[in-house]
Every structure is written in C-alpha cells, then in structure tokens.
Design goal:
Chain A is an alpha/beta fold. The first copy, chain A, folds into 2 domains: 69 residues, no CATH class; 199 residues, Protocatechuate 3,4-Dioxygenase, subunit A, CATH 2.60.130.10. Helix content of chain A is 26%, strand content 20%. In chain A, the strands form 3 sheets. In chain A, strands 1, 4, 10, 11 and 12 form a 5-stranded mixed sheet that branches. In chain A, a hairpin with a 6-residue loop joins strand 7 and strand 8. In chain A, helix 1 packs antiparallel against helix 2. The longest helix of chain A is centred in the N-terminal third of the chain and has 21 residues. The radius of gyration of chain A is 22 Å and the shape is globular. The first copy, chain A, starts with 7 loop residues before the first helix and ends in a 9-residue tail after the last strand. The relative contact order of chain A is 0.16. Chains A and B meet through helix 1, helix 2, helix 3, helix 4 and helix 5 of A and helix 1, helix 2, helix 3, helix 4 and helix 5 of B.
C-alpha cells in the first residue's frame, strides 16, 4: 500500500510498534502523531522543509563544550519551562524551580562562605545570603549551593575564555551548621541570550527581544532532599514581564536592597554602598513531605 | 503572571505575534501548539528532555558536506514523504514523486546518452531507458535527467571518498530530440541507510530494520514543466513493503528484466546477460495541465 496522507501516520507509528522499551514506544508514537499533525496543519513547501532542516542542522552545529543552542531553542519555545511545569505539579512550600539555562557546562570552583565569585572587580558589589531548610523548617546543615551568573557586561565566563578568568561568576558553596550561606558577587544585570546563532536569528525574524531580566542561577542540594534548579531575580529589573526564556516566577523575585551602613559592609567584607539580597531556599524531602 | 501549564502555550504563541512575515507567524504558532501538545502528552522527565536535547545535537553534528542526518531523521519519521504528499495532492498522470534522500549533495557529472555511471565495473550490468514527455504525450526534447544510485555494496560515492571514484553511480544526462534517454549502470541492490549515527541508533532501539528496497534516484526537469524528484524501484526487491524511509509508490516499481539476446546487448554496449528497465517519465506543465 502506498504511503499517502491517509496512511502516513498509522504507517509510521506502526513501524515503532516493535519497540521493546514501552516508554520509548509511547514517546515515539506521540511524537509521530504531533509531528505529522504539525506538517498537516502548515503544509510546508519543500523550500520551507529545507529551511527547517538547515535550521535544525545549524542549531546542532552551533553546540560545543560551552554552548548548547538546542537548550536555547527549547528555552525560547517555552518547552523547557513546560517540562519544568509538568514535573512540578504539586503545590508546595518548596522553592520553585526554573530553567537550567545553557551555561551550566563546567564544574563551579569550590569556595568558602563569604568568598566572592567575582574575580574581576567590575560592577556594583552585592551580597547574597539565605538559609536552606527542609519543608518543616529544619535547617539543612551542609547543603550545597552551586551558583553562576553573568558578569556586569552580561557574559558568562564560558562565553569569554581568555577574556574572563576561568570560574568567574561561579561558585560551589557548602552551607554552615545552621544551613546558612552568604557570598559576594556583583549585582546581576539584564542581558541578551546569545544572538549570534540560529536561535538569535529566529528571535530577530520574529521581532522578539533576546533579553533576560537580571538573575543569579542556583542549584541547591542536600542529603535526603530533591535538589532544586532555580534563579533569584532582581526586583525591578527590566524584562521581568517578558523574559526571552519564560523563566520568571514571582516567588523567585527578591529585593536587591541598597545598603549604605559601613558596619554591615565591613561584616561582609565589601565597600559601601552595596546591594544585599536575602534568598531562603526550601527543599522537598526526597520521599514526599511526610518523610521530612 | 507566572508561566504555568495553563498559560504556557498562549504565552509562547503570543510572543511570536509580532512576527512581520505572516507565514512565519503561522508556522511558529502551529509549531508551538503541536510541540507543547507533545510535551503535555508524554510529560517527559528532565532526564528524557536531556536525552532529546543530546539526540538532536548529535543529529546536527553528524551532518557534513556529504551526510545529512536531519534529512535521514525526517525520512525515517515519515515527515519527508508526508511533505511530499501534501505538496502533490492533485491526482494526475504525471510521474509520482518520492524522497530526495540525503545523498544528493554533489553535482552529478555530465555524461552522454548511453554512457555508464558505473566507474568500477562490479555488479550486474544494467540498462535503464525511457522517454520524458509532457502530460499530453508531447516528447520533451532536451529534458535533463539527474540520476544517482548506490554501488553494488550499497554505498554512494560520497559515503566512500577515496574508495569509490568521485562521481561513481551519478550522471547528468540530456534527452535526445524525442525525449529519449538511456544509460548503463549496475543493477541496484537493497542497502541500509547509514546506521552509524543517531538515526541508526533510533532504528536499532526500536527494532526497525534500516533497509531500503533496490532503487535508482532521478530528478527529471524540462523547460516549462515542474521537475520531479523520484526513484525507480526494482520489482521483486526485498523491503518493497517495509522501506525504512516509507518512499515506495507502486507506480514507480519496474521490472528489471534479464536480457540474454547478444544483439540487444551489443546495441547498448554491454555483455549479456544484463538487466533492462524501461521507465517513462511524465512531467506536469508548470502552469497546470491546461497549459501543456
């Protein structure tokens, strides 16, 4: 029987019926139905199909050890945040998650509490502090905080090897016996996602700006708890309502308050004035809230 | 407003509303709805999402000047043939089209009618002949035939640079004043699509064989007519009913008849016995059948 518009989808879905792994079979069956549904709806010309093939090929070829253009594509299409949403359905007091982003591609250097992750010294001094606790309020001593952020020009260290020192804007911190953490950095700025690749061209062609509101990335992990991949966003930052990757959650926005008090500055080892954000993190016990 | 399961699809589709090109806006809106529908249906874990990102990245990175793994992926998912189907809806007497395939990546060398495209001399001698005409039967003098096929081991020249002579299995022929063509080659064999990349791993994981039935590729073009990208398939070949890329149409299957007659062999400049296939091609006038 010929492959026609009528027989196409059952023929291809049927070709995957012999898949041994039932989950892979389910995913591929769904992929075929939705992908064919898209083709049937837009009826691409061959030229459009060729453009799509080229776009996907260039997206793959733009990836290397420090750049992940397919994650960026997933991000700007809202797929990453949708995957996040379907995986975090239970309303809970735990800290909300958000996108990993494409720049968590190297191990962050270990640092001591109070250290700065800013190895350059350009930008407005900033202190971030908080406490990691379980959902019942128990402090999580020794919780691990992996933080990374762009420099004051909006670039991550891995985007500028040779220009930025390796590990600039990154740090792996261990909380103290009360689950507390504090570290120094520079106040984050809004910045564009990389626009010099296929995803940047897509945004330009669609009149979308490439900016993300000011934020610091964190992955927080502790024994017996589910880790959380999240951001802390700077209250009042431009683009909080139009993040290019749809990652803003109101629960993650914090004041980065200006502090002029020289005693407070001295306590953190910075020069006044500086910014100070408090960001407490609540983790969910690994076996459900009742196991906490 | 936070990005949630409820707001996700309108938020992302809405972000493309400012797209100047109305067709691009339509395609992206549809893409977002179908892609999000797929995510909602399968609810991928983050590990599954990461596998998908890696798969797409590796697919892009497997492409080079002589290999197009994304076309291969489109082929095995039936997308290529579905695009072909929605673009060739009108039932007509014109020759059916089928997939281009991933190996039409270099210009075929010009050859004279009767030349062989087999530069190696291994395999069973074969002659392909036919006539190119318009839908009303008018012969199309000077029609161009671009043909390419795998060697008797199932490889295209571009897959084996250094092993096969450049241009082996390829030829660009100009039909005579009666629209006739004939050329020599070796009888094509079934062969597997390349299995040493992500698409091959997908087929292996799903228990699908990678084989294509024996065929010769053709693109036929003539002034004032729509070109056709097609194959001629060998009747009786294995895999005619389970082509890995879903490209078989019954109208394109021909007998490759065994010929023992020494006079006929001499007329084509081959040694008997040889195979002979007749494949007439009918092109559609560029401005609809009435313009023929």
């Amino acid at each position: 029987m010929d492959f026609t518009e009528e027989t196409a989808t059952p023929a291809v879905a049927g070709s995957f019926e012999g898949t041994a792994d039932p989950r892979l079979r389910e995913v591929l069956g769904s992929l075929v139905r939705h992908l064919h549904g898209f083709v049937r709806e837009v009826e691409p010309t061959f030229e459009e199909w060729e453009r799509a093939i080229r776009f996907l090929t260039e997206t793959g070829q733009r990836c290397d050890d420090t750049r992940q253009e397919f994650i960026l594509l997933s991000d700007v299409l809202g797929v990453t945040m949708l995957v996040d949403a379907v995986n975090h359905r239970t309303a809970s007091a735990a800290t909300d998650s958000t996108v990993l982003g494409p720049f968590h591609v190297v191990a962050s250097p270990r640092r001591e509490l109070g250290d700065t992750i800013d190895l350059v010294g350009a930008g407005e001094p900033c202190v971030v502090s908080g406490r990691v606790s379980s959902m019942d309020g128990t402090p999580l001593a020794g919780a691990l905080l992996d933080v990374w952020q762009a420099d004051d020009h909006g670039f991550y260290d891995v985007q500028q090897p040779g220009t930025q020192p390796e590990g600039n804007g990154r740090g792996l911190f261990t909380c103290d016996h009360e689950g507390r953490f504090w570290f120094r950095t520079v106040t984050p700025s809004p910045y564009p996602i990389p626009t010099d690749g296929p995803v940047g061209r897509l945004l330009a062609a669609t009149g979308r700006h490439p900016y993300r509101p000011a934020h610091i990335h964190l992955i927080v992990a502790a024994d017996g708890h589910l880790p959380v991949t999240t951001h802390v966003f700077v209250a009042g930052s431009p683009y909080l309502d139009s993040d290019a990757v749809f990652a803003v959650k109101q629960s993650l926005v914090r004041d980065f308050a200006r502090v002029d008090d020289p005693d407070k500055a001295a306590a953190y080892g910075v020069e006044p004035p500086f910014r100070h954000a408090e960001f407490d993190v609540v983790l969910q016990p690994a076996h459900g809230p009742e196991a906490g």
